[in-house]
Specification:
With 112 residues, the protein is an alpha/beta fold. 16% of the residues lie in helices and 16% in strands. It has two helices and four strands, in the order E-H-E-H-E-E.
């Protein structure tokens, strides 16, 4: 298992292809910040079976994880213990990146 930060994967992909880069026994890469187009190229080029992605590592007081390997997913929140780990994904205006709020000023939850 290896751990990465997304930019490191981008740097590795910008290097010339070498035969030795596919001779390893790494089965899982875990990290954050891997863009979807890099995810696919990185797994193909370095022959990785699975990537586990986590989010919110530095910018928030919680984190969510994409452990099912779906490219571009932002992770999940437990449906079993929502009161123990009460986080929500909320809507964002994609043009301004501002949070979408309801008439009471509260953030609007979004669907998975």
């Amino acid at each position: 298992i290896i751990q990465y930060i997304g930019e490191i994967c981008r740097y590795l992909l910008s290097q010339p292809v070498r035969e030795a880069e596919r001779r390893h026994r790494v089965r899982l890469a875990v990290g954050n910040g891997l863009r979807p187009h890099l995810w696919e190229e990185f797994t193909r080029r370095f022959r990785l079976r699975q990537i586990g992605e986590f989010y919110g590592a530095t910018e928030c007081n919680c984190s969510i994880a994409n452990l099912d390997g779906k490219v571009g997913a932002c992770g999940f929140n437990s449906r079993i213990l929502p009161n123990v780990y009460p986080i929500r994904l909320v809507k964002v205006n994609e043009d301004t990146m501002e949070l979408v709020r309801d008439s009471r000023g509260l953030c609007v939850p979004c669907r998975p």
